[in-house]
Design brief:
single chain, 643 residues, alpha+beta, BirA Bifunctional Protein, domain 2, 4 domains, ten-stranded mixed β-sheet, 17 helices, globular
């Protein structure tokens, strides 16, 4: 049974038990600004779990795509992924423990066919300080289930959650943990505010007896150990309690929230501890083997990283994210760049996303219509990012190797270690001259076993500060934004710069970021990130867009916002390397009747009041020169002319 079959069977199973099948929420939370991504199945349903009525009723089920960017550095083992599907079912004040536990057992053993002898569970051990009792009800339900299939339901209290217990020696089947089996948004019952709901949970694990315990995770293996010997199949949360001024009380309306990783259940169904061998990932690996002429066995980590990251990037693109240098777009860019970097380890240094992304789309478009609808646009977005970054990566790796080979690695008796390694100055040169991202340099150093100097971060920060100081001394005697004055001509060219900045992003992509500007009464000069020469056709497109916006007579105005709101929630553009105070001034240029501005940018001013002022005396915007400013940085000079 493949992953697609398991997904379909799960939804049908709970639909037949009165659950409404609801569509997946996007990976970008629509009602939760506190987090970048949807990281669990219950996250989009928080308000309903907290008491609001759901329009589909009190029994719900779905398969929710999730992304946890904090796991990005763990990718490469047999079970961690940044992107995954979480099968979920919920009771909003309807059924409780008896139905939930029995249903999931029925699904996992009878529908999927997993071996009951390899199933182990955990329950909540209670919290005496908070006055919350041990969850003996769930344990007794499990005990009855295990007895029905002739399995000894021996219960074991885990004394040390860090070290675990000798599972094999004790013969346990039901294990009690403390905070590992308590759910609340605060993470710990002692930290819950008054009015906050929470409750015990029970988890199900599947044993892979041939997997050896890794003692780096603790001396003894146990069901909640992260060594890979056991994998979690699902977690049923019973939201029973509410924190009050007097402690914890039972909620009048109690909920059930189950979430289980589709990928891990599918791996268990294959009797494989390796989730990358399931049907929604293995075809990607096979394609990588074909185009690289390498095998999964010899290049396991690289193929796992690429497979995971490209699945995540594909669904981010489906949900409307594009690569950028902030928030979700930054994570997407990092996923893509890491995938491209690991492709180099496979000897794949030419464009390969155009071959991999269609494979991913094929795996999902039958079950998620939006994948089919967005297929061509997604492929275009991801291929464009690969094209932009590949040249930078190739040059950056070449220069990285030069720095790495020249780094000193001498030891002294006093330090018993490295005196010097690659310095922060080296990393800054890679970043500033070759556009090689700092985090990629750090990863590359770790990957190649290259030592970094003990003060590399401080050295890098100092070089960045020096660059900013130099930038300010270039503009000595000028106003903010690179203006040489505040005459009407300066204001016109400053306004035109904003229009051109957005037009460049529209034509070339959101990787375009301002790296500096200089404005006189005769012309504007603008530096921006772009890996290659801008074609005459692209320059013409930029000119046309700017002139079109000038003719729309956009109204120019500004407002002050808290910096985090402006750069985060509102998405205001800024200049690379700029640091801001607590508040910033944001200029917008918007047409009458438009629902969103054409330009929305952090700036100190000054500007004209309406863009049609730029067209006085029958003038129009014209680009007169496009050239390289430095590696990865292009420069445009433009004028307002009647010619």
């Amino acid at each position: 049974m493949n992953a697609q079959d398991i997904r379909a069977r799960y939804l049908a199973f709970f639909k037949n038990r009165g659950h409404a099948v609801i569509p997946r929420a996007k990976l970008i939370p629509e009602e939760d600004p506190t987090t970048l991504f949807t990281g669990s199945g219950m996250q989009p349903l928080i308000r309903y779990l907290l008491g609001e009525s759901h329009p589909a009723g009190t029994r719900l089920t779905d398969s929710q795509t999730c992304l946890r960017a904090q796991d990005i550095d763990e990718i490469g083992d047999n079970r961690h992924t940044t992107f995954f599907e979480m099968l979920g079912n919920w009771s909003l004040g309807d059924y409780s423990k008896q139905d939930q536990i029995n249903w999931f057992w029925e699904f996992i053993t009878k529908e999927i066919g997993l071996d009951p002898k390899r199933i182990f569970v955990s329950c909540f051990s209670g919290d005496e300080t908070a006055g919350i009792p041990k969850d003996t009800e769930s344990a007794e339900i499990w005990s009855s289930i295990f007895k029905s299939v002739n399995i000894d339901p021996k219960q074991v209290d885990i004394i040390s959650e860090e070290n675990g217990a000798k599972v094999g020696d004790q013969g346990g089947r039901i294990f009690f943990y403390g905070k590992k089996n308590w759910w609340c948004r605060a993470g710990d019952a002692s930290k819950m505010p008054v009015g906050e709901p929470g409750g015990p949970d029970t988890e199900m694990f599947y044993l892979f007896p041939d997997v050896a315990h890794d003692i780096s995770y603790g001396e003894h293996c146990h069901v909640n150990c992260d060594c890979g010997r056991y994998i979690e199949l699902g977690n049923s949360v019973f939201m029973e309690y509410i924190k009050t001024d007097n402690g914890f009380e039972k909620l009048p309306k109690q909920n059930v929230d189950y979430g289980g990783g589709l990928e891990r259940i599918a791996a268990a169904a294959l009797n494989s501890p390796d989730v990358y061998k399931i049907s929604v990932m293995w075809p990607i690996v096979q394609k990588l083997e074909k185009i690289s002429d390498k095998t999964y066995e010899t290049h396991t980590t690289s193929m796992r990283v690429i497979t995971d990251h490209l699945r995540a990037a594909t669904f981010l693109a489906v949900d409307g994210v594009t690569p950028s240098n902030k928030e979700q777009g930054y994570v997407m860019r990092r996923l893509l760049r890491r995938a491209i970097r690991f492709a180099f380890d496979l000897g794949v240094e030419q464009n390969f996303l155009q071959e991999i992304v269609p494979v991913i789309a094929d795996l999902y478009e039958n079950d998620f219509p939006e994948v089919k609808e967005q297929r061509e646009r997604v492929i275009e977005v991801l291929i464009k990012e690969e094209k932009v970054f590949r040249q930078t990566l190739r040059k950056g790796l070449r220069e990285f190797d030069k720095f790495a080979n020249s780094a000193k690695r001498t030891k002294t008796p006093e330090s018993e270690g490295i005196v010097t390694g690659m310095s922060g100055s080296d990393l800054f040169t890679l970043y500033d001259t070759y556009g090689f991202p700092l985090e990629l340099s750090a990863e590359e150093a770790f990957k190649q076993g290259v030592e970094l100097s003990k003060t590399w971060q401080e050295e890098f920060d100092a070089k960045m500060a020096e660059q900013r100081a130099r930038s300010q001394t270039a503009t000595k005697g000028t106003f903010k934004g690179g203006l040489g004055g505040q005459t009407i001509q300066h204001k016109k060219y400053h306004t035109a710069t904003h229009l051109m900045y957005q037009a460049l992003r529209d034509v070339l992509g959101n990787h375009v970021v301002q790296h500096g500007s200089n404005i006189t009464e005769e012309r504007l000069r603008f530096d921006f990130s772009h890996p290659e020469k801008v074609t005459p056709e692209e320059l013409k497109q930029v000119e046309d867009i700017v002139n079109e916006q000038i003719q729309k007579d956009l109204k120019v105005s500004f407002a002050e916002y808290p910096t985090e709101e402006a750069t985060g929630q509102l998405g205001a553009l800024g200049q690379f390397g700029d640091r801001y105070g607590d508040t910033v001034k944001v200029y917008k240029m918007i047409a009458d009747g438009a629902d969103k501005p054409f330009s929305f940018e952090i700036c100190g001013g000054p500007h004209v009041d309406h863009t049609l002022q730029l067209a006085e005396d029958n003038k129009h915007f014209k680009i007169i020169k496009e050239e390289s400013s430095s590696a990865g940085i292009r420069r445009i000079k433009a004028i307002l002319t009647a010619d």
